[in-house]
Specification:
globular, about 20% strand, six-stranded mixed beta sheet
Length: about 180
């Protein structure tokens, strides 16, 4: 069985993930120079410390674990990284939107397990993942390394091929409605 969002194969290595299919998450888009500034000054990077610099705080209700949303974001960044932070934030909302998605003023306004921060940069973007429930960084990696580390046996959105999540959900709904 799978959710209608992440196409899940019930293989032995995925059985434990079954209980995580509704993992709530939030994605922020922040210009990379804020990451560099905080790192240089040896300040902690957390979703809370980055909230004033975030161009968008996009809540997604399903599939927030790194093997799905982390890889989805990595694929998306690799397909869309030739834009400034404001354009990337707008494109993120357009490409990742589905019916259980909301925008918030602050990452602290909604309960969620994982916060992802896409640190935008023309050449070297980073994806940062923070587990709100354990109050710890999960990873801070380049998109290619997120894919290398977390790619799993799932049917990810083909952002490089022009797919977007909103269109996938609509297509699945139309298929169900005509059945």
């Amino acid at each position: 069985m799978r959710t209608k969002y992440a196409k899940w194969n019930p293989t032995a290595e995925n059985i434990l993930k079954k209980n995580n299919m509704a993992t709530r998450n939030l994605t922020m888009v922040v210009d990379r120079y804020h990451y560099e500034d905080f790192t240089e000054r040896m300040m902690d990077i957390t979703p809370h410390s980055m909230q004033e610099y975030s161009r968008v705080n996009m809540y997604l209700h399903h599939d927030g674990y790194p093997e799905w949303q982390g890889v989805q974001l990595a694929n998306w960044v690799l397909a869309n990284n030739r834009q400034d932070g404001a354009a990337m934030a707008a494109k993120l909302v357009h490409d990742m939107y589905y019916s259980s998605c909301y925008l918030y003023n602050s990452p602290d306004q909604i309960d969620h397990q994982y916060t992802y921060i896409v640190f935008t940069d023309d050449t070297d973007p980073l994806i940062y993942c923070y587990d709100q429930y354990t109050d710890k960084e999960v990873f801070c990696l380049e998109p290619k390394d997120v894919i290398k580390e977390y790619f799993d046996n799932m049917e990810y959105t083909n952002f490089a091929g022009g797919e977007i999540r909103n269109a996938q959900e609509k297509q699945e709904f139309d298929t169900i409605r005509t059945s």
